[in-house]
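in:
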């Protein structure tokens, strides 16, 4: 097909072609490629829960008891008591009335947004929101307005001029941004959503398990629990497992069960995954030292970069080092790999043009020794 040829040619010419790369193994913050162990700065397994014995054992027990697949969508026969136990625990974790589990974060965003907005409605979306949010808005048929990244003044300007022309309106923002590691001005966004009568959906994919006294996310940390209509988050990153949730009111949950295609028409997550998710919430509660250590490691790395005059952005375990040029980002990533680190180059369209970067994801496993050595190497090669 001409379309396929042209697409691949163009990506190749621009140095933007992506390719898979299978790892031999992955454990405790290391990843093995072609028989060589690298320290992994590309995983979102922030707390190291994907190899935690409590999650492994819960998963194995569930397979032994229920088998591997769940056989059908939840509204048919795929619904186990286990799914409800997870939803009750998630609702309690997020301090909300209810929670509904989705098969992935991508699926949640893509299918929930079109149930909240449609033709004649407006969605106001941060310019740097995740691809799944953008796809959900496009699919909804609502008019999209993109406000400048984390710029509540620009959002207010758009609301002032545009809100009145639409029936319903939705504001969407990540809480911790996946490629920049900075945080949304949540209090300002809540103020605007109330003032301009909008619904508010936040994506806590990179905050769940990490922020707030209970580790439930940035909405908790900001003291805004209950002020955000729908809080989406994932079990696939800091929680070390798979799947996603929407925390909301009981009424909203009932609506989604009845109106959301991504929930209705997809097979329920397997019992082993649900059981691991339940165990992950227990571990977040009983082992808060994991998130404390993670945040200390992230701060150590950020401070180390600025002490050495390297540019730092954001304020989370996601640390982007902007290099601009695509080829340069790839070359730096290769150099780091030769020195024993896996640090992915992130290029357009994942990030804006001219903003190619190395993206370091700091985890629980990145001790001060490891980070000190990495900082030393970065000064030498940058
Ligand atoms: C990873 C991510 C998602 C998708 O979640 P999956 O469970 O991996 O499908 C959605 N939103 C953001 C901001 C993410 O970083």
């Amino acid at each position: 097909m001409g379309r396929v040829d042209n697409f691949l040619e163009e990506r190749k010419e621009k140095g933007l072609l992506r390719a898979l790369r299978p790892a031999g193994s992955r454990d405790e913050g290391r990843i093995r490629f072609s028989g060589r162990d690298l320290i992994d700065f590309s995983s979102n397994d922030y707390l190291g829960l994907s190899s935690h014995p409590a999650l492994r054992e819960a998963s194995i027990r569930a397979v032994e008891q229920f088998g591997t697949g769940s056989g059908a969508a939840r509204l048919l026969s795929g619904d186990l008591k286990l799914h409800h136990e997870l939803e009750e625990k998630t609702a309690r974790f997020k301090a909300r009335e209810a929670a509904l589990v989705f098969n992935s974060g991508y699926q949640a965003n893509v299918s929930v947004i079109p149930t909240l907005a449609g033709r004649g409605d407006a969605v106001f979306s941060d310019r740097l929101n995740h691809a799944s949010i953008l796809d959900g808005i496009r699919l909804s048929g609502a008019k999209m307005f993109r406000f400048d990244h984390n710029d509540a003044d620009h959002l207010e300007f758009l609301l002032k001029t545009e809100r009145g022309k639409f029936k319903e309106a939705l504001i969407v923002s990540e809480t911790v941004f996946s490629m920049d590691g900075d945080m949304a001005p949540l209090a300002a966004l809540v103020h605007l959503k109330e003032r301009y009568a909008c619904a508010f959906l936040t994506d806590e994919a990179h905050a769940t398990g990490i922020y707030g006294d209970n580790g439930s996310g940035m909405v908790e940390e900001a003291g805004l629990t209950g002020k955000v209509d729908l809080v989406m988050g994932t079990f696939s990153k800091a929680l070390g497992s798979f799947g996603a949730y929407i925390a909301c009111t009981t009424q909203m949950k009932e609506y989604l069960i009845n109106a959301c295609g991504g929930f209705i028409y997809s097979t329920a997550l397997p019992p082993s995954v649900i059981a691991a998710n339940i165990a992950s919430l227990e571990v977040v509660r009983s082992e808060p030292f994991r998130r404390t250590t993670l945040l200390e490691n992230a701060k150590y790395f950020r401070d180390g970069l600025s002490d050495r005059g390297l540019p730092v952005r954001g304020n989370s375990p996601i640390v982007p080092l902007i290099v601009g040029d695509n080829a340069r980002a790839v070359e730096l990533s290769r150099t780091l790999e030769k020195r024993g680190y896996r640090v992915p180059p992130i290029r357009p369209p994942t990030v804006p043009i001219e903003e190619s970067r190395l993206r370091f994801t700091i985890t629980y496993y990145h001790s001060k020794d490891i980070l000190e050595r990495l900082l030393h190497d970065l000064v030498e090669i940058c």
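note: The chain has 15 helices and 14 strands.
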